[in-house]
Amino acid sequence: MIKSAAVFFVLCFFALNGYAQDIDIKNIEKDSSEYHPEIQGFHKKSGILFPLSEIVGINFGLCAFNNYISHEPFAKISFSSIANNFKTGFVWDNDFFVTNQFAHPYHGNLYFNSARSNGYSFWESVPFTFGGSLMWETTMETDPPQTNDLINTTLGGIMLGEITYRLSSLVLDESTYGFDRVSREILGTFINPVRGFNRLLHGDVNRHTKTNVNDVFPVSSRFSLGYANVDRRKKTNINKDNALAELVFIYKKDLSSESFKPFEIFRLKLGLDAKDGEEPSSWVDMYGILYGKNLVRIKDKALILGVFQDFDFFNNTIYKLGSQSAGLGLIVHVPISKQFNFSANVHNNLIILSALNSIYRGGENRDYDFLMGDKVLAEAILDAGPFSLQLEYKFYWMKSVDGIVGKHTMGFLNPKLFIKVYKGIGAGAEFIYYHRHSIYKNIETTDLNLTEHRFYLSYWF
Q: Which end of the chain, N or C, is less surrounded by CB atoms within 10 Å?
């Protein structure tokens, strides 16, 4: 599985040779495929100067790139610009939607992993993420510090950072040799560049252990290629007739466990659809558990109460939505028989900050408003042999905090059907009903209802 996924990346790099250290692990089974958390003693915590210096280096490196390569005016910082930033205080910015809602969270992920991949725990890595973002906002741009960037970089960076850390842990395995080992190191670095840098810095790329020392938890992955269609609407000039690609990861510790640490359960969707000559639509849709407690443990059945964090990024010609939210929820898991399995998840989140496309432009690059509100997510999955029937619904209620004054409700109803045909190869179909109701105070009220159909071939790995 991992070998085939890594072939593309290994062709882009030279081969590493000579793995030296051979470390003995006492009282640990040699079978590296057995599910287990990371083994203590092999992820030692570095001194605080290591992550701090990396964060400072990331910020100065990016600022230098913006200044000397991209020639961005905002990167020409000085002591005067820093003093002015502190004098002005925090404001809302007018950057492009993708910059604010995805680039900043990805930037925060680098801060987070500067600590996480230096041996710090999830919660210990959080202040480094906030600190790196605060340094950037107050000192690394001539623009005043921006409230939305601090929130998105911190919250989105924490979530992206821990998920990329765990995904890279699934790839890395120091008990392997040769091409397998090289391809794992390269793919792990592609997923988590800061961790790859620290593994090289600390010599972990040359270390050999007798078993896998990283987190090894079950993950279900699906890659799909297909077709997406939205019927043409003359009034709104909306039409979609696109090729589609989507990658889905479902990561979960044994659901019969007593408790769950941050992101020992998460779901990640990455996708895009496009056709020649048009800007592609893209989405990053994630949720994960921050803490969970199993209320019912009867055989394989589970009822888990948890605190969830969600990250939404949808960017297309119909709607733009990005949000950071957190709240309480339940996970239900009920195996019915060997062939039938039912699971469900529902959680209700406070939207700490979101961005939603507006009918009015709020700045030179800004066609969206900043909002707060509430999000409800509910999903149910029934697996029956090779068939999987799934139903998901998301509902958002949001009120503007910066931009055009207004209130918005929107939702996505998404039934899906999958079938596995032969050795992980199968097909799927989805129906998406999208609805939105927006009230712009003292201006107008708008409504939009659309249906989308998706058909694709899928490969589960």
A: N
Same domain, 121 and 179: yes
Mean pLDDT by 10 residues, the chain (461 residues): 36 32 35 68 91 97 94 93 95 94 97 97 98 97 96 98 96 94 96 97 92 88 94 67 94 92 97 86 97 90 96 93 98 92 96 93 82 98 96 98 95 97 95 95 91 95 89
Does 250 lie in the same domain as 191?
A: no
* Residues 434, 410 contacting (CB under 8 angstroms): yes
- The amino acid at residue 254 is D
Question: 438 and 315, same structural domain?
Answer: yes
Copy the structure tokens of residue 286: 């994630």
Q: Count CB neighbours of 371 within 10 A.
A: 24
- Which tokens sit at 196? 């790859």
Distances (CA, A) of 269 to 103, 138, 338, 418: 17, 33, 27, 16
- Rounded CA-CA distance 323/377 in Å is 13
Q: Is residue 214 part of a domain?
A: no
For the record, the structure tokens of 38 come out as: 């990371």
Domain of 345 in residue numbering reads as: 219-460
58 shares a domain with 6: yes
User: Contact 160/108 with Cβ under 8 angstroms?
Assistant: yes
260 and 345 share a domain? Answer: yes
The token pair that represents 85 in the structure block: 């930033």
Query: Which of 426, 436, 423 shows the shortest CA–CA distance to 456?
Result: 426
